[in-house]
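Request: Not sure, any thoughts?
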Amino acid sequence: MYKYDIGIVIVNYNVRYFLEQCLYSVRKALKPNLKVEVWVVDNASVDGSVSLLQSNFPDIHLIANEKNVGFSAANNQAIRMMDSKYVLLLNPDTILEEDTLDLCYRFMEQKPEAGAMGVRMIDGAGNFLPESKRKVPDLWNSFCKLTYLSDIFPKSKTFSGYNLGYLPEMETHQIEVLCGAFMFMRKETLDKSGLLDEAFFMYGEDIDLSYRILQAGYQVWYYPETSIIHYKGESTKKGSINYVKTFYGAMQIYVNKHYGQGNARIFKNIITVGIYLRAVLSAIFKIIKELVRPILDFVLLFAALYGIKMFWASFYFQNPDYYTDTSIAYVLAAYSAVWIFVLWILGHYDDKTKVGSTIKMVLSGTLVILTAYALLPEAWRSSRAIILLGTIAAFMVALLTGFILKWLKGNNSSHQGIDGNIAIVAQKEKGIKLKEIISSAVSFVHEFYFFAPANVAKDTFYTNDVQALPEIVRTLKIKEVVYSSEDMSMKEIMQSMSAIGAGISFKIGGDDALSIIGSSSKHHQGAFYTMDMKYAINEGASLRLKRILDIFFAVLAIVLFPILYFLTGFRQKVFSNAIAVLLGDATWIGYGGDLSDYNFLPLLPKAIIPYATVDKVLHYGADHHKTKNTEYAREYYILKDVTLLVRYFYKMGD
């Protein structure tokens, strides 16, 4: 006899805000007739997740690992300690409907032959996620998946076998493979099939477990009578090279495990080739995606500079061939490279940047070029006029490609600002709170419109009610809809998202959380707005500049090691510290104190010179390290590191 009806396991890794909303949705899904235990296994998060859980969710069972042990091992830790009839593996970047747990429990009770079940999943934009129902990989459906045929023919029985795209989305079906984001299973089934295979660090473990459940004689079901939101790609960034490596590595483990004997070896070899090919293509596409705009800017800027050169030769020197037989082409290419590099370093290619910021970045590039110009030999100099006219060209090119990219994306929301209007669906008090959170997180919003949830009395505060949103969202030029989960059920929110359709960004807030979470599509990492403190160290430009500075001083320390060895009091660690910084395992300036003094701050490598201890004081107060670490992260700028390294160079061997 089990003590609980359902045991929920959530493995968390640095997704504090999504975890918070997930747990609130779990809390709302609890019913009096169900006894539920909730376990959260934290894989050494450094974003303050553990503190949040301890203060806001004291009723859950928490396992705080000191290192990231992986998804499978973390789930197994909790499952072994559970005493529940059913086990639900749940991702932290999911939100349940209020009836999800109850309906799943009832379904499984009615089907004793069922060992596991999954539900209908939608992404943050309200789109159905095809991985809600899948088939065990075989030669043909794997080939279709790896060659994108299943994407080209998503409803074809011939080509869409991997995700069973030919099965109706809103019908209950017996399937073969569930998604690890939501796996509702009998405990007795896991006792027979075994727990998650810990050889899978992340990805692939859900296919492996589903396959073993089938081998144990149980059925696997897809049940669309209830839905969940799955904000894809939170615990790992799906566009990263690390994701490609981890995902396809997991697929290789699965193939080696299940297709390594007899005639299956042919299938294994074919799939292995396909996996490596897909991994290589994914990595290439990732690199191309990141480089296409800087390369385009370089080509356009070089062409503009070449045109300026021709104009200047004809206009000023009265000789179109003035620069013939010179190295002007190489010089212009170098100018273009400097401007693009500075734009990249300072964050122009991160998210949207304001016109004023772009001007400053271009001028910074011009300053670098003019400084280098003075040091060049006469044969390599062009003309200061070309540099000054090139400054204007660089600014125009940066703006032009930015506008083109904006037009192609069609989705204009970002953390810097929202190029459109926002609709907030909430009761008056909560609506004002959500507006404050958004206003504190973004630099500009065109207009806020407030919509009344269902069954809320008419008030001049509201533009209209939620039922009218699908019809007037285009008229009001609304780019983002924010729902209050305190004033609408998750089922109502999901229905509203589906009714509005594609092209709009959706976010959800409420339940006393000071954050609003959402995602524009399954292909993008989820986003959130929060009233938490903003940290300059967390900006892309700051991290790049800091890394370049670290590398520069590391190389300098290695070259000047004999001198530094003497000046630092004969400390050999100057050299090993420089190597660690060069490899990215350490940073010259960073946080200090105990882990609790900075685990709530943006992640940095271990510091050689802790910012919190550079000041000479007789006694550190109780919160000294925490305060100084926060100050460093919040007010970071590159000259701070330069100044500290010059002043405290003798600490480089600490």
